[in-house]
Amino acid sequence: MRLNERSDELITIAVTFIPTPNLILLAICFAHRSRDIVVPACRENDKELLAGLEKIGMKLDWGEDDSGLLMKFLRRGSGYYMSIGCSELIAAGEIKLEQCGNSGVELCEDGVVVDGGKFIPADEVIACTGYTNMVDFVEILLGSEVAEKIGQIGGYGSNTRDDPGPYLGEMRNQWCQTEQRGLWIFCGNFTQARFYSSVTAVMLQIELLGGWDAIRGVD
Question: Where does 46-103 have alpha helices with state H?
Fold first, then answer.
């Protein structure tokens, strides 16, 4: 059934306000072309910096399937670091690096002990341990019943680390109505906000107008 003029208007408005670069970027990601287009460009543009980091001893990776930061972000929202100057300082030796193994570190009164028993004196220790899935925050705010009803937030079913299948083809429980009626979850960075905010606004407008059947004129 063809949508009526009102719904056509809403969709046109949504697409019009999505910047073209954002459309292209997300199209590249969801078409699984990041490995072929984005990653080679990153390797080339940052080759000197990456070589400097590896020389210092930093372990680098490009994701489970060599698809890079963008896919890590979409799949699990972790496992990467966007440098705003710190990487250059590390590569230059101005910030010292101690690459720890999987066993982590042991905190002491005046420092830390890393793999192999090496002691590193420290006045302060800052734990940059990242985040858990956002559903944990939903549980804190709204309780375990709502959190269980919603399920995992983020990822699209790539069947990679922290993003179990089956394949969904869109972001899980983000920028949309969740299984908890009336609860919409907006999260991510500015790139996602630029893309999804207008689309989400259209979906909210559809809800306010009574749903798809109402704006289609279906009884």
Answer: 47-56, 68-75, 86-91
Domain that holds residue 54: 11-210
Rounded-to-integer distance, Cα 83 and Cα 87, Å: 6
In a domain, 51, yes or no: yes
> Mean pLDDT, 10 residues at a time, over the chain (219 residues)?
48 64 71 83 94 92 87 85 90 88 80 85 83 88 95 90 87 89 85 79 82 65
Q: How many CB atoms lie within 10 A of CB 153?
A: 20
Element (H, E) at 45: helix 34-45
Give domain status of residue 200, yes or no.
yes
